[in-house]
Structures are given as C-alpha cells and as structure tokens.
C-alpha cells in the first residue's frame, strides 16, 4: 500500500521578520489523518509556521503546495467573529443546516455545543458583547462541526476548564481528518498527537509521539550531539526522570531506543524531597497557614445573589502543594481571593498564620513599571532571591524564565503578553514569599518556561496553591488535588484530576443546579417554564445520555445498512429486505431524537 499523499507540503521555505530568521530552509508535510502538535518557545516561529501552512502568509523563498480540493479550517488566537451575528449564525449557518432538525439529530454537533458550553450561552445570544473566552469557544465550535480534511488550531485549550480540555481531546482524537495544533498544554499533546514538531532556531524537528515521547527524544538528541548547554540539559533530565516514574502509558508511543535516554536519568534523584521541604516549611510557617471555618460566600448576579460556598471548612498546612480544579464559575478564583484577603466572607472566618507571607498571581497581569527595563523591574523587588537552598541573582532567574541577557534591557512597555506574565512571576519569586497562590499560572507560558517554573517550585520550601486547567502542571507540581463541584463545598480527590472527571461524568454536583444558573436550550430561545427540581433534572440528564448513546448506535446501524444495500443492488429480494430494515431504523431514530430533545430540555430546567 502506498503512503498517503500530503495535504500540504512546505519545500525549502525561508521566512524572516526584519533581520530575524524565523524559518530557514524548512521542508515538511502534513499527511491525511496525521495529528501533529507544534511546540517551541514564544516568538520561536510556531504561529509563523501555521501561517505558512494555511496560506495566511507567504514565504520569502521556497514553495508551499496544497491539495486542490483541500477543505481546511483555522482557529487563530484573535477569535475574530463577524459583527452583528449570533452564536447560531456563526456555528450553525444556513449554508450548512437549512433546518433545525438537521443539526439537532446529529450527535457530533450536539456534542460540540454541550462540550464547549454553548448551550449555556444560548444559540440566539449575540457575539458582540461576549468575553474573549466566550468568543473563542464560539469560533472553535464553528470549526469543529465542519467536515474538514485539515484542522489547524492555535492554542485551542485557552479559556477551557479541565473538563472542557478533556472533552476536546476526546473529540479531536475521534474525528476524521488531519490536525495541526499549537498548544502549551502538555497533557493535551500527549493525549492527542501522534507526531510533535519542535520549532527552534529556524528549524522544525519532527518526533514520533506526543509530549512524553518528544521529551525522551530531545534528551537522546542532546546526548548524541554532546550539547554543551548543561543547565538546559539538566532540566530535560529532570523532566525525563519525572515522566519515566509516572504511568507507563505515558511512554508507550516512542519508536526509538529509549535505553540510551535511560542512561541520562540513572542517577537522577526525585524531583523534590517532599519530607525535607515540609520540615523546612513548618519551620518558616509554623503550624497554621490558612484555616477556613464555616465560610459562606455569595456573588451578586442579575437574578440575585449566587451562593458559591456554604459552610465551607478547609485547612491548608505548611508545605502543602494543592491543586484546585472545578468548572468555570464554581468559585476557584473567589476562593483564592478570600484566602489572600482581597474579599471577605459573608459568614464564618478565615484564620491566617502569623508568619504567612503570601504572593498572589492573579489571572490579570498586574501593573508593571512600563518605563523600567526588565532587569530593573526585577531588581526593584530584590537583587538576590533564596529559593530553598539556592541563592539566585535577578539576572540568572530572568534568564531561566526566557529573558536572555540582551532581552533583559527591553523596556517593560515593549513586552508581549506572555513576556509580561513571565515578568510578573519573576517579581513574585524574587520577593521570597513562603506561600504561593497561583491563579492559572500557565497562561501564555511556553513549554520551556513552564519546565523552568516547575524546577523552581520543586525547591520551594513553602505552601503552594494552584488553580489551573493544565493537568500536566497540576500533576507535576501538586501533591494533592481538591475540587469545587459547584454545590458550595470542597472535596478532596485522592485520585486527582482523573477522579474529578469521573465524578463530573457521573453527574455529581452539577454546577447549574447548585449555582442556580439558567441554561438556555440548544434549540431556539424558549420562554421560561415551570421550575424543575434538581432530582428531576439529574434523572432527565441521565435519560438524555442514554438516548444519545442509542442515537449513536442507530447512526452506526444506518451506515452499515447503507453499505449492505449498495453491495446488494443486483439482488432484488435482499435489497428489498435491507430497505425495509433501513426504514425501520429511520423511524426509530426520529422517535429517539424527539425523546432526546424533550429529555435535554427538562435536564436544563
């Protein structure tokens, strides 16, 4: 059997911005059915590579060819949508769906709408007043429902919670067609991709497998070529050692000799000495960090106060490393703000240890001195930082966070969003806090910077609280995971993020019922009906799930009968029998679709 033809080919492509060479003599191709993850430092050329593939930009030299009938969809980072449109106009245009029943009966379309929470937004909601995250989900949904030969996604996991990222990974794994995705979400890369492209120094290096396989291969490449960047190699070794100690499935994809890579980590110690760090943290922090006692907290909404926490009791001790997960709107950021004192509880109390010196990283880049240089902004906090048993100068730490010596003299006002985020983290660490409270710290950070941050946190002798949708980061940094499930309480999860997803899939503590949020129907906007009890809504949700599985089975039966009917065209008796079976399947499918629509409407209150 011949190899599949490439959908897109790059031949000796060269691209430069000013005097900076981004791509230098790059030749590669995307074949039908391939799932490719693109990684590399911010500013290293990932988005430029995508623009070459999609035709958004032309190379300075070289050639890009695409198959003539190629159907390609692109999600860029802008999230630009046509003005004056609604969610329905963008996601379910009349050119694709002439009538509502055409998409309502398609399980794939329904899965996209619910998986990206567009049912919460409402199909008739205008896109103009939406937040950037909501607009991005709408743009992503518009690409996912189209039948495409090639789907190109630039940071699709941004603005998705852990559950949304898990759904997206499952969806793109099962869709037909090729995929090229730029993302810093290492769990997503591992879960989805069969090939990884690393864009660095004007070149594109290809590796078999996802992120774990890429890490192994990069370590092997460094060993063979006798790379002299010992600090960078040490980070790769540490990351590799951590991966190899994890679940065996992480490294099941590589197709090269990993015995040689194993030699790199034969004497590599564990990422961190948990007991030693806890002992050090106890000496610095005492016995109490945060004690949350019977706390109630509600936020105002148009429909009145919405209760986030009810009788919440929780203890955070010295040296704890806790990841906090939950659906969007469950109160993760609100919980962090309560701990650091930015907001006050409506009832109950929060006891803070006397020696606690917290550093809070919010989701928004706090004000930085725009006229100062990068190094000056760091040295304004401190010139030397002590992290664990290491003393690190401001310049050295800045270099570890991706600010090379020449870049350290760039004015803060000229930095990109990702660079400002890195600078914000740097300033926090230079202040030598003993409690780190991090809200989505991985936003806008490339993989190398994430690895450097993880390496620093390995030696941090204090308490770490992390809210993040990045499963890899949570697994790597935190020793335990707690979840806000939307019912006002906080649950400890011995099984980590996987246990959280299992609970959510089982229908535990649905956010909509607990929070009192109304969920628009998937169909056209409906008038308000009688209130549905939480028990009835859960039962209806379970029934809708059963009916959806039945529709998937009927879809498969229908395809099978169509194939058998085509093969039996010359056998009149057989064809007549198959035709009767096909009509019966059609009739049952229509009935199940009607029952599903009724159950889905009831489940959504």
Question: What's the helix and strand layout?
Answer:
Blueprint: E1 6-17, E2 20-31, E3 35-39, H1 46-54, E4 61-66, E5 72-75, H2 87-91, H3 100-104, H4 107-115, H5 118-121, H6 132-144, E6 150-154, H7 162-174, E7 178-182, H8 186-192, E8 195-200, E9 203-208, H9 211-224, H10 230-245, H11 259-264, H12 274-285, E10 290-299, E11 306-316, E12 321-326, H13 332-340, E13 347-352, E14 358-361, H14 374-379, E15 384-387, E16 390-393, H15 394-400, H16 417-430, E17 435-439, H17 447-458, E18 463-467, H18 471-477, E19 480-484, E20 490-493, H19 496-505, H20 511-515, H21 534-567, H22 572-603
Parallel strand pairs: 3-7, 3-8, 5-6, 6-7, 12-18, 12-19, 14-17, 17-18
Antiparallel strand pairs: 1-2, 1-4, 8-9, 10-11, 10-13, 15-16, 19-20
Helix pairs in contact: 9-10, 21-22
Task: Give a written overview of the molecule.
This protein is an alpha/beta fold and 605 residues long. 41% of the residues lie in helices and 21% in strands. Helix 21 packs antiparallel against helix 22. Mean pLDDT is 79; it is low at 249-257, 276-283 and 509-530.
Cα distance spanning the termini: 54 Å
Described by the principal axes of the CA atoms, the overall outline is globular
Order of adjacent strands in the largest pleated sheet: 5-6-7-3-8-9
> pLDDT average, as an integer?
79
Query: Radius of gyration, rounded?
Result: 26 Å
Please give the share of residues in helix: 40-55%
Q: Total number of helical segments?
A: 22
